[in-house]
Amino acid sequence: MKLSWKTFLLWSLPIMVISFFLWQGFLAPTNNDLQSNVASSRMTYGRFLEYLDMGWVKRVDMYDNGHTAIVEAVGPELGNRVQKIRVELPASVPELIVKLKKANVDLDAHPTKNTTAIWNLVGNLLFPLFLIAGLAFLFRRSNNPTSGPGQAMSFGKSKALFQMEAKTGVVFDDVAGIDEAKEEFEEVVTFLKQPESFTAVGARIPKGVLLVGPPGTGKTLLAKAIAGEANVPFFSISGSEFVEMFVGVGASRVRDLFKKAKENAPCIIFIDEIDAVGRQRGTGVGGGNDEREQTLNQLLTEMDGFEGNTGIIVIAATNRADILDSALLRPGRFDRQVAVEVPDFKGRSAILDVHARNKKLDKSVSLSIIARRTPGFSGADLANLLNEAAILTARKRKQTITLNEIDASIDRVVAGMEGTPLIDSKSKRLIAYHEIGHAIVGTLLKDHDPVQKVTLIPRGQAKGLTWFTPSEDQSLISRSQIKARIMGALGGRAAEEIVFGDAEVTTGASNDLQQVTSMARQMVTKFGMSNIGPLSLESEEANPFLGRGMGASSEYSDEVAIKIDKQIQAIVQECHDKAIEIIQDNRVIIDRLVDLLIEKETIDGEQFRQIISEYTPIPEKRMYANV
Predict the structure, then answer these.
(1) Architecture of the CATH domain 426-613
(2) One of 273, 435, 496, 497 is an active-site residue; which one?
(3) What CATH number is given for 161-339 in this structure?
């Protein structure tokens, strides 16, 4: 593993400093003679003179220029044994030598070896030499073109991943559900492989293609497929890798990226999440960002500036096209904008077929049924769905994935993990009436989606759930459908009111009421489905740089606001009264269904409709075609 220059400095400099002080404090040479002649005890200078007067001192060795003495003495206090005693002598005692001579004491002086200056010089030079050697090593690494962009002084180099022959393992056959977008890129690949068929009629290669769509719809997967199909040099980088703390670094990286791309043209540059660097200039609270704006300016110049970039196709992906700078979106830079939307029923079936290739599905599993049950799922959601089903199958030690595991996985992805089943109590019965209220109102309304199942098994924050399966994907929704959905959402609260009374109504309908209020408000202010008239009273245009809702302001008077509130109340009250009426007319059916639900905890849609049909006819559901 290669160490970056920052990591090297972070560890090497403290080690050098600590080593220097250790050398100076502990490893510098000392008087070896003094250390070898270790004394067993210490004695004061006054006590030493008393021993000298009593004739107990036999030998004295002086060290450190006469400041320290090792005394060999023998006497009754010392057990009549010769002992070595260390004595610290005063700075100037010339009379001591005279006394020692008079007492016939063996005296010897040991001069200090003059090697300290040499070792101090070596120690002082060692630290600078290490520092200079380390810096020389870093600069040599930074000037080496094979050392990579993570080394010292190379933060202005591009961090793009370069592949002469991209081996992503993904081709166009692995991409499903976005046929229109795939056709656009198949044309780009053909242009790279056979440019003469286009240039013969005067066509030129597009400079940029922008992929726009919600998260998980396959934008990055499509870029991988392009890399796998084109067989040309491929550069891939994230938009956030351009922008750094220092102004000018991002622009330098853009220049370096396009310089490398021009050397390997024709080639493809893929920039993921381009909104990190391509935001509108001069926007946001406090003004713009100099580093990001300089990086964007350099990107604009490289894509379509004075010099141009022949043979380079820039492919970018984002889910925030509303905040991109207009200069980046114009023809000549991004010639094409390809929308990658959430797949429809046919697209979901194709995506499931791709992800089911390496899954062991039971023969009874129908991918079209799964696609029908998953409206609004993106490609990433469907891949996660089958993966969760495979994990659940392995946990149950089964050999193949059945529809039961897939149903459980759909519930887990949409609503959360399965909780502990409720015990048979008043709370469980109340939740059962609430869920049956939703289901029976939705079943007896002609414009409501059919019930898929009703369950008392908790998932996530919900203590019970009622699942509805849309008959088909709908791009347009009628007024009667919206009102039917409001009635279905109010069915749980209506059942609580009829069965338990107003005093026993619970907070279980809080999420339902939020949905009801939102749908009713959209009918009045967005869709023009009220007595106020066909007016759009709430603009969808808001400043994305001020946060959601901060930049939005009401475009109507206070009188109109009062009318809006009254219309919302009227719509909700009308739907609530209709839900109450359905609950009252079918109380016998509801009681039977509640007892069955408490017993089994889950009732599927077919059994639910069969029981209701024994008491009252079920209206035939309307079929709405896509427009």
Answers:
(1) Up-down Bundle (1.20)
(2) 435
(3) 3.40.50.300
